[in-house]
Amino acid sequence: MSTQDKKHVRKKKKFGKVIEYVSQERTIIPSDDILTQIEKDALKAKAITPQALAEKYNIAVSTIKPILYRLEQEGKLKRIASTKWTDVFSSA
Fold first, then answer.
1. CATH number of the CATH domain containing 74
2. Residue 43 domain-assigned?
3. Helix (H) or strand (E) holding 14
4. Measured CA distances, 61 to 8, 10, 49, 65 (Å)
5. In the prediction, which pLDDT does 20 show?
6. Cα 46 to Cα 55: distance, rounded to the nearest angstrom
7. Residue 9 — φ and ψ, nearest 5°?
8. How far apart are CA 75 and CA 62, in angstroms?
9. Does the residue 47 lie in any domain?
């Protein structure tokens, strides 16, 4: 979705407050070129989160997480911090 096609959404909250936001549609299945670029970026970074990569490549976080977990299992990445919501990875 290009920047011109983004939809401005108005959502009404309690007591007449209206909140505007721009909805984002992210890619679910990345191409092979983007997958290799994601792996290169993950290995170069001192610390990386799935959210940072998802924002950079406009890909869903649920798609990025298995890629990072696979790299961790291969021994290329190491999980340095983990919470209920996110994980932080570093190159091994």
1. 1.10.10.10
2. yes
3. none
4. 22, 24, 10, 6
5. 77
6. 18
7. -110, 135
8. 21
9. yes
C-alpha distances in angstroms, 60 versus 15, 42, 75? 33, 16, 24
pLDDT at 3: 47
Q: For residue 2, what pLDDT is reported?
A: 47
Task: List, run by run, the mean pLDDT of 10-residue segments along the chain (92 residues).
Answer: 58 71 82 93 94 93 94 95 94 84
The whole domain housing 68 covers: 28-91
Beta bridge partners of 9: 21
49 token code pair? 């989160």
Which residue, among 29, 74, 71, 28, has the nearest Cα to 48 in the 3D structure? 71
Residue 21 lies in a domain: no
CA distances from 44 to 16, 29, 39, 91, 92 (A): 48, 23, 9, 7, 10
